[in-house]
């Protein structure tokens, strides 16, 4: 039996009926050229024969002396995990998103390996979809994205390709992938590694700088006191999933006009969408919302120095001017990146853990409402930048499906694919009604920036 590490155990402990702790992904494909009408049914038959299940998909939970661990499931039933289903008519994207919303609301069976793959036919325009969900204790979001990408090919002629559960095993790079997680940062801080003690002076110095800056700059100070918001209430188990693609060329044109990054622009789009949504709900806080944003930190003098840090980004939702909002978001991001560039990887993780510790305590217990450190998660996971295929079918879009939690009712995750930015929004259906309208508000946010830049 392979014991679970403390972070993975935490994902099991956090799970409740209203708080499923699995991540997922939705992929939409077009039929191969010349494929018969029953192409998806034939594909389902082919996939049912893929009964050699590779790790981690053959692992189930087991307990020894009260401690959880992974063991191989010798009686794995592929029919339970792989499901061939048809959309309700008329087979629009609306019906597909409703299907994913419902499936993502369901808890997974802990007596079996905690994953499911749904092959979905019945989409219009000779398309089909693949919805995959995996428990976060088994695979984290970044690793799941890498697996989903590795399943694909850049060759449209390649056939007999393995599904995600039957691919050759690769070693998990869990430490690097999970370094941006709120929970893993705190767990790492409390770990037994001797390197932790060596980081204390530098971490304390940078934290003191941040606190002093907060005292001088009210906008900066709001990082430590995010406003109370409808985004941060207790939630139900019902989910709403909304997804849409946006043209990366448009976003890059805005980047050039304002001399910002893609991450800055998509964060500004998200800020604009949140502002409009909350105004229409009569619930926009007077103080600006704060987002937890994982960002890439590149050290130009060290090719191995690519790190990812968590930034608590002021979204400036109190500003009506979209261009001014983008400029301020960019400025805040640059200041945070500069702070991290002066720190080692261990120092970055420990700094993150210390600044997020109040948020973790509040999310876990609800006992520290005055320490609402952030209101929403906006995460950008890189994807393939060229067309991909699966058994000859072209991938048209891939959308992340993440986790909503008590006191964190909305998660905005996006990925890049072949000149597109793919947004996946997951939220509590009751806490955040009409969440799907945020897709229009994201488009409006991009159009406002284009108009302000004269594009």
Task: Walk me through the structure.
The protein is of the alpha+beta class and 455 residues long. It has two domains: 2-172, Chloramphenicol Acetyltransferase; 177-386 and 399-452, 2-Layer Sandwich (Chloramphenicol Acetyltransferase), CATH 3.30.559. The protein is built from 14 helices and 15 strands. Strand 14 (410-417) and strand 15 (420-428) form a beta hairpin. Helix 8 (195-216) crosses helix 13. Mean pLDDT is 85; it is low at 172-179, 192-197, 219-223 and 299-306.
Would you identify the CATH H-level superfamily of the largest domain? Nonribosomal peptide synthetase, condensation domain
Question: Could you describe the largest sheet, including whether it forms a barrel?
Answer: 6 strands, mixed
The percent of residues in helical segments reads 25-40%
The chain-level mean pLDDT equals 85
Task: Report Rg.
Answer: 22 Å
> Which regions are unreliable across 5 or more consecutive residues at pLDDT < 50?
172-179, 192-197, 219-223, 299-306
Query: Which CATH architecture of the largest domain?
Result: 2-Layer Sandwich
**Would you report the number of β strands?**
15
Major sheet: arrangement of strands: 5-6-7-2-13-12
Strand content: 15-25%
What's the CATH first level of the largest domain?
Answer: Alpha Beta
3D shape = globular
- Output the helix-strand order: EHEHEEHEHEEHHHHHEHHEEHHEEEEEH
Class computed from helices, strands and strand pairing: alpha+beta
- Under CATH, the topology of the largest domain can be stated as Chloramphenicol Acetyltransferase
């Amino acid at each position: 039996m392979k014991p679970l590490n403390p972070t993975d155990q935490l994902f099991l402990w956090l799970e409740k009926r209203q708080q499923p702790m699995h991540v997922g992904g939705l992929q939409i494909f077009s039929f191969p050229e010349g494929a018969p009408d029953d192409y998806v049914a034939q594909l389902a038959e082919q996939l049912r024969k893929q009964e050699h299940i590779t790790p981690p998909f053959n692992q189930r939970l087991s307990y020894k002396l009260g401690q959880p661990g992974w063991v191989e499931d010798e009686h794995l039933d592929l029919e339970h995990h792989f499901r061939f289903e048809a959309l309700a008519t008329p087979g629009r994207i609306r019906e597909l998103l409703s299907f994913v919303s419902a499936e993502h609301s369901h808890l997974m069976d802990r007596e079996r390996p905690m994953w499911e793959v749904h092959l979905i036919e019945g989409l219009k325009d000779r398309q089909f979809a693949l919805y995959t969900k995996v428990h976060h204790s088994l695979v984290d979001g970044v690793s799941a994205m890498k697996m989903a990408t590795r399943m694909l090919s850049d060759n449209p002629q390649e056939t007999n390709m393995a599904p995600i559960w039957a691919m050759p095993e690769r070693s998990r790079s869990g430490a690097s992938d999970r370094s941006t997680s709120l929970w893993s940062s705190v767990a790492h801080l409390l770990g037994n590694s001797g390197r932790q003690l060596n980081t204390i002076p530098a971490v304390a110095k940078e934290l003191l700088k941040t606190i002093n800056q907060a005292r001088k700059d009210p906008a900066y100070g709001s990082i430590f006191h995010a406003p109370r918001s409808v985004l941060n209430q207790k939630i139900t188990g019902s989910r709403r999933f909304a997804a849409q693609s946006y043209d990366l060329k448009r976003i890059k044109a805005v980047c050039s006009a304002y001399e910002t990054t893609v991450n800055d622009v998509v964060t500004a789009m998200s800020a604009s969408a949140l502002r409009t949504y909350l105004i229409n709900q009569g619930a926009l806080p007077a103080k600006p919302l704060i987002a937890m944003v994982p960002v890439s930190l590149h050290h130009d003098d060290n090719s191995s120095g690519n790190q990812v840090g968590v930034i608590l980004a002021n979204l400036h939702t109190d500003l009506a001017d979209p261009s001014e909002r983008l400029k301020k978001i960019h400025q805040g991001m640059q200041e945070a990146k500069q702070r991290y560039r002066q720190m080692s990887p261990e120092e970055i993780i420990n700094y993150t853990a210390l600044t997020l510790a109040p948020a973790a305590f509040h999310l876990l217990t609800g006992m520290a409402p005055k320490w609402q450190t952030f209101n929403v998660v906006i995460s950008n996971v890189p994807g393939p930048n060229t067309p991909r295929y699966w058994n000859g079918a072209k991938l048209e879009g891939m959308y992340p499906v993440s986790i909503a939690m008590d006191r964190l009712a909305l998660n905005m995750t996006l990925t890049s694919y072949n000149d597109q930015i793919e947004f996946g929004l997951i939220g509590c259906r009751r806490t955040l009604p009409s969440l799907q309208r945020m897709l229009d508000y994201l488009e409006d946010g991009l159009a406002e920036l284009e108009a302000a830049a004269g594009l």
